[in-house]
Amino acid sequence: MAGDLSEFEREMSDVDKLETTPRIDRAAGPKELTPQQIAAQKHATEEPSPNYMRDFLDESSHVMPDHVFQWHREGTQIAVLDRLKLGHYTSGDEIDLHHRSIREAHGLLWSFIAKALDSGHRNVRIVHGKGARSNPPAQLKSYVGQVLKEHNDVFAFCSAPSELGGVGTTLVWLRKSEREKEATRERIQSKRG
């Protein structure tokens, strides 16, 4: 073994020692953040705002105050929409957007739908009014229809029957939450035995 060491020393005799660079003193306090770092932190902590929840109204989405909403995503059963139109589903949650701007409605709708899904609500009500007295008319109502058509978690929506708010209220059928899907799978599995 001793012979191996001297052989190693002989092989390494022409190798120079590397110079070391001074290390960073980690005890020093944090440096001031750059504007880019501040913007990146803000962007990372903001609630996401996907394209379908944009805070402006597309002209192609504009409807009149007496317009009756009736829409469903492809693959949604027509019977679901029919029951929704008749008000047969109990609404799990409701939001009133009267006297709100589109920009305010933008954030409120995002939060409302997210909370409804987290709570396991499949059916919700959005009260927006007809917008007959606004100028131009039905801005908010039109915006609600635009958002709901483009929102991935909305399967169907329609204007409420008159006893539940009529054309000033929209009833919405939402995607089943993962928790609800799991409960359904367990229920079916227990029936099978």
Give a verbal description of the structure.
The chain is α+β, with helices and mostly antiparallel strands. 38% of the residues lie in helices and 12% in strands. The chain has 6 helices and 5 strands, in the order H-H-E-H-E-H-E-H-E-E-H. The protein has a 5-stranded mixed sheet with strand order 1-4-5-3-2, sandwiched between helices. Strand 2 (93-96), helix 4 (102-118) and strand 3 form a beta-alpha-beta unit. It is elongated. The termini are far apart. The relative contact order is 0.16.
Order of strands in the sheet with the most strands? 1-4-5-3-2
Helix content: 25-40%
Beta strands, count: 5
- Topology order in helix (H) and strand (E) letters: HHEHEHEHEEH
Strand content: 5-15%
Output mean pLDDT.
84
| Distance between the first and last residues' Cα | 71 Å
Taking Cα atoms only, what radius of gyration do you get, to the nearest Å?
Answer: 30 Å
Sheet of most strands:
5 strands, mixed
- Uncertain spans: none
Count up the helices: 6
Q: What is the SS-derived class?
A: alpha+beta
The general outline is elongated
List the helices and strands and how they pair.
Blueprint: H1 2-12, H2 35-45, E1 70-72, H3 78-85, E2 93-96, H4 102-118, E3 123-127, H5 139-150, E4 154-159, E5 169-174, H6 178-192
Short description:
The chain is an alpha+beta fold. It is built from six helices and five strands.
Annotation keywords:
single chain, 193 residues, alpha+beta, five-stranded mixed beta sheet
